[in-house]
UniProtKB/TrEMBL annotation, chains A, B:
Pfam families per record: YdjC (PF04794)
Phylogenetic placement of the source organism: Bacteria, Pseudomonadati, Bacteroidota, Cytophagia, Cytophagales
Keyword presence, Glycoprotein: no
Protein name: Glycoside hydrolase/deacetylase ChbG (UPF0249 family)
Keyword annotations from UniProtKB, A to Z: Carbohydrate metabolism, Hydrolase, Magnesium, Metal-binding
Coiled-coil zones: none
InterPro entries reported for this sequence: Glyco_hydro/deAcase_b/a-brl, YdjC-like
Organism: Mongoliibacter ruber
Cofactor(s) needed by this chain: Mg(2+)
GO BP terms, alphabetized: carbohydrate metabolic process
Keyword Metal-binding on entry: yes
A GO molecular function held by the record: metal ion binding
């Protein structure tokens, strides 16, 4: 039995790897090329996040972002990017609100998706509460509402991804909706190899409406953890990421803002992911050092827009 | 005919004045006393507005405020006032979003109240658009949602009022809902003499469900206009208000925030009501001069909480 499952796993990995090589090659690169999307999550969260992220895309090496539509600052993003027509910007599907003093709820309305809100009427704090309380229908309704909201303010999303991974780490049906809507709107949805194998492959029947051959699978998604922040720190981590990047399509998730009064006030809840952390991301990815690391390691930046054109 | 209408008007004014004297007297003052609520609108709008308003209530002479529940920063207010149990705080019923880059929509959900939102899914910019597009049922639903949202985060509202006056300057039915819900929740709703005569008195049949004897009518509502801001400026205006205050119950509406990056970014749309204006309100109402003006003019501060207890 072990032998069989090993064989099956090997076969799956072969399949996935074949597709990955295909993705890199379809993008016009060789399977040995190190491709990277430097992706700033959370634009729209706050004014500070907006202006810092845009600055890091104009002056630094950040080349993709995704927007949190339930925030009132989402509209400022639409205004700020008017003179940046080629900008790579997706919808950062947001099903939670993890801050204490800065809260929002579903764009589809709390009465339309009661399972997505707590007693206070706002989104739940974490993905576990989303998975426990929200139905797949509610999640699908809210994903659609957020894509439509982006379109309504003039943002043509280049991709979808998931804030805090709540779409990925809830119920497989959430992933079905996520891939289904990406397919419907004709944009790629971030999907990484490990997740595809854990969630999609064992539930093929659930995903029967999805054209799985068209799902664009990223080789590696990289992100600094709280442990990394507390130990080696962000600059060393990002330096290591660049120096050790694997061939294939990689996504590095960062969060860019200024450590100002607004961001400090929003992020009081945690000792991580706060203004200082986000300022650190800004500082690194607008530095000369970061640009040099790209060159030295022959890393090629790619975008979701390019992937979406495949 | 003219004679009759003059008589009717005189009669109405007599009635209203009798009630006003009653309000002052019921509060334990004489009809000659100059009573004042110094009311900071718009708490909840932004972090800057929150901390400046609370500071002006702790250190200055601001003694009442009302909260904008559709803003994500409303929850910070609930946190900030935990150690201020006597705080006079109402719900600033918000049916618009007048800023360009900082937008929100109805708490009852845009699908539940489509007439309250524009094509972009956010509230309309001004009261005229609300009056043209929203039904009385939608307005009532949203007023209720905002009161319930305040209660859900632990705020016991002391009163209701209306952001930009959209409840007052729309359709008389909006005022019916406003007074009806105030009656249902057992809190006063700001209503000034002139408005009562313009909207309520000629439409008595519409207001048949409201116990009009219980409506607390304010003698004067004072607010700096854009013309005042551009001519004599805020300090001179507020000095005049204090020196010329009339006997009875007066409400002075101000807007308190710091002129910081956040407030500047929110208020880009207008040359008025911006961070500089709000900083000016903060500066005046935390000044020694303002305190002295209260004393010199023998002005007595009263609150909505006191009015609500009548």
């Amino acid at each position: 039995m072990k032998k069989l499952s090993t064989f099956i796993l090997a076969f799956i990995i072969f399949q996935v790897n074949a597709q990955q090589r295909n993705l890199a090659e379809k993008l016009g690169y060789s399977a040995e090329d190190k491709l990277l999307i430097i992706h700033a999550d959370d634009i729209g969260l706050a004014h500070s996040e907006n202006i810092a992220t845009i600055e890091a895309m104009k002056k630094g090496i950040v080349n993709s972002t995704s927007i949190m539509m339930p925030s009132p600052w989402a509209t400022e993003v639409a205004e700020l990017i008017k003179d940046m027509p080629g900008l790579d910007i997706g919808v950062h599907i947001t099903l939670t609100d993890e801050w204490f003093n800065y809260r929002w709820g579903p764009l589809s309305g709390k009465n339309a998706v009661p399972g997505l809100v707590g007693k206070d009427g706002y989104f739940h704090f974490d993905c576990a509460a989303v998975a426990q309380n929200a139905s797949p229908e509610e999640v699908e309704k809210e994903i659609r509402a957020q894509i439509d909201a982006a379109l309504a303010i003039g943002i043509q999303p280049t991709h979808l991804d998931s804030h805090m991974g709540c779409v990925f780490y809830g119920r497989p049906e959430f992933v079905v909706s996520y891939l289904k809507l990406a397919q419907e709107y004709g944009i790629p949805a971030m999907m990484v190899e490990g997740l595809f194998q854990q969630v999609v492959v064992p539930n093929k029947e659930l995903f029967k409406e999805i054209n799985l051959d068209q799902v664009k699978i990223i080789d590696n998604v990289l992100i600094a953890s709280t442990e990394i922040y507390d130990s080696i720190g962000l600059p060393e981590y990002y330096t290591n990421v660049m120096n050790e990047l694997q061939p294939g399509v990689n996504v590095l998730l960062i969060h860019v803002a200024y450590d100002d009064e607004e961001m400090k006030a929003i992020t009081t809840r945690f000792d991580h992911w706060h203004g200082k952390w986000r300022q650190g991301d800004f500082d690194f990815f607008t530095s000369e050092k970061a640009k040099k690391l790209l060159e030295e390691n022959n890393i090629k930046l790619v975008t979701w827009k390019e992937i979406g054109k495949l």
